[in-house]
Structure formats: structure tokens, C-alpha cells
Amino acid sequence: MSIVHADFTIERQYDCTPAQAFSAFADPELKGRWFAVPADWENRAWELDFRVGGGELNRGAPPGRPVHTFRSRYHDIVPDERIVFAYDLLVDDRLMSVSLTTVELSPVEGGTRLLFTEQGAFFDGLDDPAEREHGTGLLLDALGDFLAAEPAR
């Protein structure tokens, strides 16, 4: 049994308002369009209860592969400014990691600055902090693509 502690911060700038970026996290219809597992995955489940004390469940697997589960709990939400949540990642019901995450949104010239900070505990070599940071960067890029394609709200 082993544990690795790691943290990382990723910064992105999006051509939208902080309220639009916040809505992409808070609105279930919008978040499902950039964060949910692909439609062709098996064992899919997705739920979002975006409020302090609420949480999110996102589960699925490519056909014939292990099931990945993301489950979170929201601890602090300041509309258009901040989201703080803790989340677990599991593979076939085996805990891979537990993380505390803060998403900060602030207006900047030309749009919104997003600062994503994660502090994680990674268990038994089931996940790699560098891979998590890379994957999170890809998710934030997908958020950027989604926001760029969305008409002004």
C-alpha cells in the first residue's frame, strides 16, 4: 500500500464572462455537454446537484473496459467567483485518489481567468499525478471549446 501526495494549478483564459464560465459548471444541461462520459460508454451514470452539500456522480467505461467513477461533494460556492469541492476517483470500485479542488473565476481584459487548483492523495500506483494534471488540462481545454461555441447567454 502506498500513497503519493501532489498538487497542481492550471490557469486558462476564456473569451466569456465569469457568469458564463460559472454556468458551464453549475447548469446540469451545460456541464453534461463538456464533462460527461462519451455516449458510447457502458455503465453510464451522471447526476449533478450543484449546491453546497450537493454533489456530482459521473460514471462509465469504454466497452469491455474498467468502470471509472467520479463522485464529488460541493463545500463552497460563490456564484461567478469560486467553486470548492472534494472528489473521489474509482476504477471498478477501487479508490484511486481523493482530491480537494478549487475553481476560481475572475474577470480580465478580454474575458475570464480560470484558476484550477487541485490537492490530491493518489493511492497504490493506480493513478499518476502528472497524468491527472494532463487530463485536467484536457478537460479545461474542452470547457474552453464549449464556451467558444456557445452563443452569448
Radius of gyration: 15 Å
Mean pLDDT: 94
Which residues form runs of ≥5 with pLDDT under 50? none
CATH superfamily of one domain: START domain
Contiguous helical run count:
3
Order of helices and strands: EHHEEEEEEH
Q: Summarize the biggest pleated sheet.
A: 7 strands, antiparallel
CATH class of one domain: Alpha Beta
Amino-to-carboxy terminus distance? 48 Å
Strand order of the largest sheet: 1-7-6-5-4-3-2
Percent of residues in β-strands: over 45%
The CATH topology annotation of one domain reads as Alpha-D-Glucose-1,6-Bisphosphate, Chain A, domain 4
Measured as a percent range, the helix fraction is 10-25%
Q: What class, by secondary structure content?
A: alpha+beta
Characterize the structure shown.
- There is one protein chain.
- The chain is α+β, with helices and mostly antiparallel strands and 153 residues long.
- It has a domain at 1-14 and 66-125: Alpha-D-Glucose-1,6-Bisphosphate, Chain A, domain 4.
- It is built from three helices and seven strands, in the order βααββββββα.
- The chain has helices spanning 18-26, 28-34, 129-149; strands at 3-14, 42-48, 55-61, 68-78, 82-91, 94-108, 111-123.
- A seven-stranded antiparallel β-sheet has the order 1-7-6-5-4-3-2.
- Strand 2 (42-48) and strand 3 (55-61) form a beta hairpin.
- Helix 1 packs across helix 2.
- The N and C termini lie far apart (48 Å).
- The model has no long low-confidence stretch (mean pLDDT 94).
